[in-house]
Fold these 2 entries.
Entry 1:
Amino acid sequence: MKIAVIGTGYVGLVTGVSLAEIGHRVSCIDVNEEKVAKMQQGISPIYEPGLSELMTKNINERRLSFTSNHREGIEQADVIYIAVGTPEKSDGSADLSFVVQAAHNIVDCINHNVIVVIKSTVPVGTNDMISEIMQCHLTSDIEVEVVSNPEFLKEGSAIYDSFHGDRIVIGANSERAASLIEQINQPFQVPVFKTDIKSAEMIKYASNAFLATKISFINEISNICELLGADIENVSNGMGMDQRIGSQFLKAGIGYGGSCFPKDTKALIQIAGNVEYEFELLKGVVNVNKKQQGILIGKLNDCLPNILGKKIAVLGLAFKPNTDDLRESASILVTTELIKQGAEVVAYDPIAMTNAKSILDPLVQYAVSIEEAIENSDAALILTDWDEFKNVDLAVFKKMKKPLVIDGRNCFSVKEMERNGIDYYSIGRSVPAKIAEVASI
Ligand code: UDX
């Protein structure tokens, strides 16, 4: 099948490369010529394990190409994927201007019948709206059918997820279009769920909102655990054994970040609001997350009430491990607050520092290693659970003025840290002193 993919952001690029890998001829289109020139040489604009290798392989085997010319990319395509961004507007709703632009580009370039697949995360009703825009501008003898096919890829394991996903959702108005998209995806051997267009659009938002709810829920439980002397790791494990609950997304921490959960939860609140429904539960989820992102600052201020002029090491800047993405990462809020309180902030992240330099406060300094970041520091805050941190030799913390580690991702065992003489605070796990306090009441 000949496929065009409009937009080579995270979703578009991974989709295009994966479709090429299963045998389709894919032309990826992006307006950014500089980016296209790099991708033509197999250089990926994002860090994603396995992506560059598959790009090079499929370019060499002539199944994958990149262009900034819409006509060139679209002319021969049987199916055109729209995978452009839908950024958050200031009111929380999704900005659809790139999707609408892509629809106009398609109409301007096609001279044959096509199926347009919308991969971008778009509010319920957008597929119909895009279909109408195209119908209005098309010459009468060309037919375009729009199909919703949301993505569920996780950053850092997107290539793996493409081949091992839990489901592929296809929302279509006709069995013919749904079957064609099913056929395209057949080599992935992932279960297919076919439904109507609006339900497919909603499945994407509802799934992300549900996962975000699980995270905010467990984070609130962790805060209560701290007050009562229970251990969140034990609680999560015990809860997760109930198959109705499931063990995933029950890891307490400093809240969710990234390009999807924060944006999609706010968008779903908006979508519901547009039809005069107040999504109270989801509003709570968003508020809890905002509070949770700042929880380490509270813990730090409890230990060191005045951090003016103190050296604070920040370990981990990406919103999660195995990505260089800082979007909506707690590191933004945490470093901003530390600088505001007058601390000297020295950060280290195995991969995300280049991105961080253009996003974080210019006063943030960067170290080349954990050792350099924590040397002579007054406290170390852990924001991302990179393996490099989890596997570090605990003796390294002796380089601090007095070992004080505040861990937002529960990277270490409380007992182990205690044994190594490290003053250690984490999430939802009571500090021994606190247990004694509660027990004595
Ligand atoms: C998410 C969805 O998982 C994916 O299906 C969708 O397509 C895009 O959004 P992603 O943003 O890549 O993927 O990351 P994910 O691994 O889901 O983690 C999101 C955030 O939640 C991270 O900040 C992570 O640290 C946090 N998280 C996740 C927790 O705090 N606890 C958990 O148990 C799981």
Entry 2:
Amino acid sequence: MSGGRRLYLDGVSVVFDGFRALNNLSLIVEPGELRSVIGPNGAGKTTMMDVITGKTRPTQGTVNFGEIDLTRMDEAGIANLGIGRKFQKPTMFDALTVFENMELALKAPRGPIACLRWKLTGGARAQIEQTLEEIGLQERAQDLAGILSHGQRQWLEIGMLLMQDPELLLVDEPVAGMTDAETEQTAALLVRIAGRRSVVVVEHDLEFVRALGRRVTVLCDGSVLSEGSIDHVQNDPRVIEVYLGR
Ligand code: ADP
């Protein structure tokens, strides 16, 4: 992706009451990259997402997005830069249609640059329809969000985030509770989304991470234990010990 910004965590530590949730964590996500982050419970995955989005401030180290130092910014400022986050539990209005939820997401507070881009690209309807196609819900536009399946709700929420035109999308355990077919479709969706945007996916499901087929970072005890292809990290003796030996 040309002109995109690189995410760079440099030596980030987060200490809660003397406990190091992140311990000198360094990580680079290139513009347009799709990165999976895995690791056992308590590895620091959620804290890492919290630090990137400004929910938690690092005790040490810096987080940069391109030239911008996120460490000095608050959550709203970071969101306005084009960093979106999807939490595990979808938030939407069940009594509104899929299309109406997308419309609301489009009208949510946006930075001036995103607003200008939207005006220049010809308005809401085309953009919503295009995104519904991207998330595979074009046939469901007039259905109430409340009748969607669990998987479809996750996709709708990803679509709602896309309406904000994020440059970096952070996705927290998107396939928890999904059927195998939904999991496969979610992998294809995230692969489609990346490229034009950077995507960081935190996930437990190794088969899903394999389906994403991109670079994987394994976190353990708040820092990077291993990084590379899924085959590389799955064969790394340190990773095997952490997943099977504990
Ligand atoms: P993961 O998402 O990989 O399961 P977390 O980032 O949630 O890991 O947590 C990392 C460690 O930090 C855990 O041991 C957790 O108990 C601890 N932790 C997370 N948030 C807090 C907090 N607000 N106060 C104290 N400890 C915390």
